[in-house]
Specification:
Shape: globular
Radius of gyration: 14 Å
Largest sheet: 4 strands, antiparallel
Mean pLDDT: 93
Order of helices and strands: EEEHEEEE
Distance between the termini: 37 Å
Strand content: over 45%
Helix content: under 10%
Structural class: mainly beta
Strand order of the largest sheet: 1-6-3-4
Low-confidence stretches: none
Number of helices: 1
């Protein structure tokens, strides 16, 4: 199963931000090719079509591959620098052969 979520934001330009979230992957079937994983990318810009987002400049990416079972969440976090426009998008994807969950997505300026 490959799934994705997209959310566009306009934030302060030329500023360091942090994005974090928690994810859980069930662990009761064989992994997807390359291993079960949840990825979080920060993309530069806003996109009307997901195909355009796939070609976008990545400001940051973090991939979590812990499959600890439903309800056992793992925190992933990454920092990034915004560009001149402050237009960014969070692109979250999952590649698994089983159910996966993402929760508590947070975006905030680095202190």
């Amino acid at each position: 199963k490959t799934r994705f979520a997209y959310q566009a934001f306009t934030v302060s330009a030329n500023t360091t931000y942090v994005v974090e979230c928690e994810y859980a992957i069930k662990d009761d079937v064989d992994d997807a090719p390359g291993g079960d994983r949840i990825g979080v990318q920060i993309l530069e810009g806003h996109f009307a079509d997901g195909r355009d987002a796939l070609e976008a400049n990545k400001l940051s990416e973090v991939v979590g591959a812990e499959a600890l079972g439903k309800g056992n969440f793992t925190l992933v976090k990454t920092e990034f620098e915004t560009g001149d426009t402050g237009e960014i998008a969070i692109w979250i994807y999952g590649v698994t052969n089983e159910d996966a969950y993402v929760d508590n997505v947070k975006l905030y300026p680095k202190e």
